[in-house]
């Protein structure tokens, strides 16, 4: 290991390196031996590339902090009581693959997915990704490695793109405000239901769902309704509202427009009736259809939601996709998820930022009705770029083509003698196959022979949904399935007639008459040159991992390797419908199984569900599993959830959503969990104790000694332990959640397992559970998955965001067991080295008894506030001038920064970061000493963008030079990243919520 200079952390690079050393010292014979040994091993091994520091650097860091070997260092960092005795995570357990071997295996999986053309619909369409967006957004690390834009001065590009997304949604739906994405359509509907429940003051408990709503959405609603005690009624909407028992207790209704069978109805009058019952109208819809249909905002909807994936995001076996969510003005401050607004910077220039950040779950904790944190920013950006690229007339053309093909299909199948159930439609038909011998099953058989999937509705009816990806030849093939099933003559392309443009199937009263996407941004960048430049113009404003380390504590911003990203955009993975028959997705299922098995080995648990789309969704799923387990034991009364005050805000929010009552547990002044408080609360609530949620290592960045004792206290009092696995990067191969004493944990694949953060999503939050909880894992109504007594679905798709599972699968397979364990060790070492370098300059808030932190460290800046009025944000903004993304600010302690370097950062980069922090410390000292004024200094005025450092002599009223403002350390002459605006005014932004793109008139009057 790292104890000697000839250790082999890196099998290839180090063997070559040591061979050279041997040659220099000992002559050629030994060199030959070393070379021969490596001759049959691949050279493209991954851990060499993934782990930042090399052997010598590792040794240097170990020596700097006073350890001669890695083993000694790890022994001092991780409590012996929880160290794994046997290596459950080594190369025997998970064998490493080289990059090229990985591609070979991924190719084999791809080839075992059958490339059928799916017209199944049900909210999922084949999308066409414009190549300029494919190459320059989804395949571009400058977009996909960004973090959530909490630091707006270095995130104006993605903020603008997310505003484009919001504007696109607002314009197409005709709603007052839209957010910057939610996880998927089902969970968006559940968020809508929770909003309706809150709007009715949680007194009215009936929520009516039209039977035309997507079945997977209904399943997610069922899960969510249970936690809130909402009564879900699924009925034909037209009947339901007449029922007085429903009407008097009604908080909201959900309808689908067009519905799952393709019907398009006028809901104007029903919306009035719902409003007269003081309930909310929630409409799930399709953005492309809204180019032709009267937008819900014009007929009375209060909330409009759906999935934006058909705007250029591959279906990917279910995700990830950006759900959208829009609402009326009166509900805007209750809307879940992130909202981007326009504010101004310190010079008065307009600038974007996350609006109403205080609404985020970190603050609301147990008062929250939503736990959404990570969402789908990258996919929202793709969808927004698609709208920018096509503009309103391009979208209208696409909609006309899809609708026109559907009309041709309808007239052809009717000519063969079939009945089409819905005469009024956009892109979906329900076809009665009664005239075919063998009815629907015969039609499905013929379709399968033509490599086509149709929707199974029942024995008689089949469903078909058309999309943009369809060629005229595809249309002919589809029509001929219906011809063949009734033994009619096949049609040819030349025999097809386009329907007359006037022949619309959408009644006049629900046709769209209002223009959409009239904003300049949607009417400018239509050539590829313009689009390419627009994408790069935005990208250049944003700091991502392509520029520098992003040391955000609790976020684990590590390398998102190119090799693990490559298979993601292969069409064999991108083009698969989530409800395709299982014999067509063998490659996907095998990859999913392997990932589940590896995650179980890593966590020490028995079973895994990959369904949750984010960490918070995993928390909710895990707690719901615990509830169901207690119910199965006849203990439905167990509803108390103990949560330390230091927990992430999503923990209490998820507990509330799962129907639990939160009781806080104290932490001691040294940051450790207060075991006595835990014991006393567990005993007080022993008859009703459901669960205890704990993050390990703690959010204070320390491996606490008492974790097993804490878990025992809970188990002794009848509760289950939920371990928040956000910090799993510190554990792999050293300990695991099962050994710590947990019963269930979630993992953030978008942290520990290298799925890129994408500027705020996608994410995947699988849960792993002990044997007794395995039967309760989430199920799915359409594709069998989960446990035998499982909870209902927590996501729309059976395996959540299935396509990005490939990234974590590749990451694990390429590192292998040893590479995974080595990654955790170096993550610990990098953090401890930073703690060592910053000690003496800053106060490292918490360490263990040996003076060690875990994989992250908290530095407390409270003293600077007291002495010099310098806040955490002043340090953060000044770091931007030094070219770094600031660490996590003011969490879990308001006066602190949480720093997490990860294993991927090299010693050079870490030293550069420490140099910057130390230099800023000196600048702060000048304010403390009075050489710089408290209200006009390098930190308070940070960041310093180009327009500020180029102010005229008269305007430059600062007690420091421009040189010092922009280039305080010499490395910046080479590596300068310029924030594009100066500090943004948060308070102004929240008071003046502007959440859409400027209009043509506003653009004219802008500076
Ligand atoms: C400790 C902890 N738990 C839970 C979460 C929630 O994860 P997600 O953002 O994927 O919902 C986070 C997110 O940063 C976290 O740091």
Q: Specify the number of helices.
A: 37
- Output the CATH homologous superfamily of the largest domain: Type I PLP-dependent aspartate aminotransferase-like (Major domain)
Regions with pLDDT < 50 over 5+ consecutive residues?
Answer: 3-36
| Proportion of residues in β-strands | 5-15%
Helix/strand/pairing category: alpha/beta
Total domain modules = 4
Structure in words:
By secondary structure, the chain is of the alpha/beta class. 40% of the residues lie in helices and 11% in strands. The chain is built from 37 helices and 26 strands. The protein has a 7-stranded mixed beta sheet with strand order 2-8-7-6-5-3-4, with helices on both faces. Strand 9 and strand 10 (350-355) form a beta hairpin. The N and C termini lie far apart (60 Å). The structure holds pyridoxal-5'-phosphate. Residues 373-374, 554-555, 614-616, 648, 650, 695, 699, 724, 726, 748, 763, 765 line the site of pyridoxal-5'-phosphate. The site of pyridoxal-5'-phosphate has 16 residues, from helix 24. Keywords: Mitochondrion, Oxidoreductase, Pyridoxal phosphate, Transit peptide. One of its GO terms (biological process) is glycine decarboxylation via glycine cleavage system.
Quickly describe the structure.
The protein is α/β, with parallel strands linked by helices and about 1000 residues long. Bound molecules: pyridoxal-5'-phosphate.
Task: Supply the key terms.
26 strands; binds pyridoxal-5'-phosphate; Aspartate Aminotransferase, domain 2; 7-stranded mixed sheet; 4 domains; alpha/beta; disordered N terminus; Aspartate Aminotransferase, domain 1; about 1000 residues; about 10% strand
């Amino acid at each position: 290991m790292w104890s000697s200079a000839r250790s082999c952390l890196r099998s290839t690079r180090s063997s070559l390196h040591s061979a050279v050393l041997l040659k220099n010292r000992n002559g050629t014979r030994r060199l030959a031996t070393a070379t021969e040994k490596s001759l049959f091993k691949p050279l493209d091994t991954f851990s060499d590339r993934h782990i930042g520091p090399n052997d010598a650097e590792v040794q240097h860091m170990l020596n700097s902090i006073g350890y001669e070997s890695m083993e000694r260092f790890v022994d001092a960092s991780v409590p012996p009581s929880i160290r794994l005795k046997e290596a459950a995570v080594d190369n025997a357990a998970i064998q490493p693959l080289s990059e090229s071997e990985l591609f070979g295996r991924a190719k084999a999986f791809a080839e075992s997915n059958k490339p059928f053309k799916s017209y199944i619909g049900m909210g999922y369409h084949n999308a066409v990704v414009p190549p300029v967006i494919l190459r320059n957004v989804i395949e571009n690390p400058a977009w996909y490695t960004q973090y959530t834009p909490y630091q707006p001065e270095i995130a104006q590009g993605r903020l603008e793109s997310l505003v484009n997304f919001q504007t696109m949604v607002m314009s197409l739906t005709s709603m007052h405000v839209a957010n910057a994405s939610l996880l998927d359509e089902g969970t968006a509907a559940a968020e809508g239901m929770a909003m309706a429940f809150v709007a009715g003051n949680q007194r009215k408990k009936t929520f009516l769902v039209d039977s035309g709503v997507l079945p997977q959405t209904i399943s997610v609603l069922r899960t969510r309704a249970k936690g809130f005690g909402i009564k879900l009624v699924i009925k034909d909407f037209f009947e339901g509202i007449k029922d007085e028992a429903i009407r008097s207790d009604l908080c909201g209704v959900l309808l689908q427009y067009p519905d799952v069978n393709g019907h398009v109805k006028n809901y104007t009058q029903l919306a009035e009736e719902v409003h007269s019952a003081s309930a909310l109208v929630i409409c799930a819809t399709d953005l492309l259809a809204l180019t032709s249909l009267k937008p819900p905002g014009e007929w009375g909807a209060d909330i409009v939601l759906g999935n934006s994936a058909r705007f250029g995001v591959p279906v990917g076996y279910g995700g990830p996709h950006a759900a959208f969510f829009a609402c009326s003005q009166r509900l805007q401050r209750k809307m879940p998820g992130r909202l981007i607004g326009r504010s101004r910077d310190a010079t008065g220039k307009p600038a974007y930022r996350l609006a109403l950040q205080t609404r985020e779950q970190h603050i609301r904790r147990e008062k929250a009705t939503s736990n959404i944190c990570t969402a789908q920013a990258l996919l929202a950006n793709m969808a927004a770029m698609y709208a920018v690229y096509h503009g309103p007339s391009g979208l209208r053309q696409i909609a006309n083509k899809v609708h026109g093909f559907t009309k041709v299909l309808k007239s052809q199948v009717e000519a063969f003698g079939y009945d089409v159930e819905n005469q009024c439609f956009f892109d979906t038909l329900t076809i009665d196959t009664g005239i075919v011998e063998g009815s629907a099953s015969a039609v499905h058989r013929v379709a399968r022979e033509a490599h086509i999937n149709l929707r199974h509705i029942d024995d008689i009816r089949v469903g078909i949904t058309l999309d943009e990806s369809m060629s005229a030849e595809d249309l002919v093939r589809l029509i001929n399935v219906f011809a063949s099933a009734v033994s009619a003559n096949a049609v040819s392309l030349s025999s097809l007639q386009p329907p007359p443009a006037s022949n619309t199937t959408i009644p006049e009263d629900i046709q769209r008459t209002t223009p959409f996407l009239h904003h300049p941004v949607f009417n400018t960048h239509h050539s590829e040159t313009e689009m390419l430049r627009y994408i790069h113009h935005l990208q250049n404003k944003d700091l991502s991992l392509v520029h520098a380390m992003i040391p955000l504590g609790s976020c684990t911003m590590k390398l998102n390797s190119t090799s693990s990203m490559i298979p993601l955009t292969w069409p064999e993975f991108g083009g698969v419908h989530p409800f395709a028959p299982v014999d067509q997705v063998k490659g996907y299922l095998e990859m999913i199984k392997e990932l589940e098995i590896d995650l179980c080995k890593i966590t020490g648990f028995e079973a895994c569900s990959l369904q949750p789309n984010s960490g918070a969704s995993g928390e909710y799923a895990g707690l719901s599993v615990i509830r169901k387990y207690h119910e199965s034991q006849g203990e439905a009364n167990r509803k108390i959830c103990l949560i330390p005050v230091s927990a992430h805000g999503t923990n209490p929010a998820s507990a509330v959503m799962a129907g639990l009552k939160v009781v806080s547990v104290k932490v001691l002044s040294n940051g450790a969990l207060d075991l006595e408080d835990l014991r006393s609360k567990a005993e007080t609530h022993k008859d009703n104790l459901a669960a205890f949620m704990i993050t390990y290592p703690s959010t204070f960045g320390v491996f606490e000694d008492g974790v097993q004792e804490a878990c025992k206290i809970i188990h002794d009092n009848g509760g289950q332990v939920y371990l928040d696995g956000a910090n799993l990067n510190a554990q792999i191969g050293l300990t695991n959640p099962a050994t710590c004493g947990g019963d269930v944990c979630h993992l953030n694949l978008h942290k520990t397992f290298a799925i890129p953060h994408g500027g705020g999503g996608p994410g995947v939050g699988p849960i792993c559970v002990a044997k007794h909880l395995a039967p309760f894992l989430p199920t799915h109504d359409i594709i069998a998955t989960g446990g035998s007594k499982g909870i209902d679905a927590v996501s729309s798709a059976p395996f959540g965001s299935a396509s990005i599972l490939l990234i974590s699968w590749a990451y694990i397979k390429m590192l292998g067991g040893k590479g995974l364990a080595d990654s955790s060790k170096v993550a610990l070492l990098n953090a401890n080295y930073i703690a060592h370098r910053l000690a003496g300059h800053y106060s490292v808030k918490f360490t263990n008894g040996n003076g060690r932190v875990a994989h992250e460290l908290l530095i407390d800046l409270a003293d600077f506030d007291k002495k010099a009025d310098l806040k955490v944000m002043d340090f953060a903004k000044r770091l931007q001038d030094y070219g770094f993304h600031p660490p996590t600010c003011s969490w879990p302690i308001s006066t602190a920064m949480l720093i997490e370097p990860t294993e991927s950062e090299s010693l050079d980069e870490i030293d550069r970061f420490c140099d910057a922090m130390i230099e800023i410390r000196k600048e702060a000292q000048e304010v403390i000493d009075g050489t710089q004024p408290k209200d006009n200094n390098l930190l308070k005025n940070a960041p310093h963008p180009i327009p500020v450092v180029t102010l005229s002599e008269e305007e430059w009223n600062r007690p420091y030079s421009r040189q010092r403002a922009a280039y305080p350390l010499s490395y910046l002459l080479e590596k300068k990243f310029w924030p594009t605006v100066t500090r943004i005014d948060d308070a102004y932004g929240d008071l003046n919520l502007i959440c859409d793109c400027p209009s043509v008139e506003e653009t004219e009057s802008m500076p």
